Write the structure tokens for this entry.
Amino acid sequence: MKIGFYTSTFNDRPLEEVVDFAASAGFDAIEIDVGGHIKTPDRVEDAVSLARNRGLFVSSITFFGNQLDSDRDKRRELRARTAEFAAAIGETGVPIFVIFPGRDDTTSEEANYDDFADFTNGLIAETRASGLTFAIENWPGPRDNFIGTTPKGWQELFRRITDRRFGLEFDPSHLVRIGVDPYRALEAVKDRIAILHAKDTAIDREALQTLGYHSRGWWQYKLPGLGLLDWPRFLSRARGYGFNGTLSIEHEDAAYGWPSKDLAARKEGERLGLDFLKSVLNGL
């Protein structure tokens, strides 16, 4: 497996600086954030070349946005932009384009799944020549209600999107905080994992007892190895299922400078994550 990180942790820094750090720190790969480091489809090729010239594998490009936005004009605009990025990414040979399904609160659950599946099937057809894979991250969204972020939701999507060029950017940290067993969840979708996000979650049981699930402050995202996930168990299972792709660290650990605080601390966090994941993989 390759080890990289998602550049959103450094969205306040120019991409050239970020890839220089990634290469010098010993990372194999990079996952580039559109909003922070690419901005427009015409800049995809330059961003990818910048990373590759530093010897980095560009594992994926990630484009944030609610593809089911209830505002129809915003939805059309985002989807048109998504299609433009997909075409540009496909031309570079980057293997994976990560998007977020979102949710339209004004319609039914089934309609949300149908709509997103229709859109994604269209993207897959339009990029057949490049073979680009599309993946969704199982982030529940700012209101914890995005579709396709639980085992049941994944099956709803896979039933509608049968092409294996659609899969998951599987992030166990989200599952830990919503009460889903990440090991069982991984097994159930083992043939649909496009990329793994390396992020952990810590839970303050006393705060949870006081505040309850429908509150804030009882859980925190952590760097891999600093939360509840058993990484040797998790990665051993992933490898056993045939996954040999990229582990992309998504650094959202407030103890190490996130978000956009001390730059040295953020870099230290990335290095700690890299060292930890290397040690786990070497021990498998």
Summary: Strands lie at 2-6, 29-33, 57-62, 96-99, 133-137, 166-170, 193-198, 200-203, 219-222, 246-249.
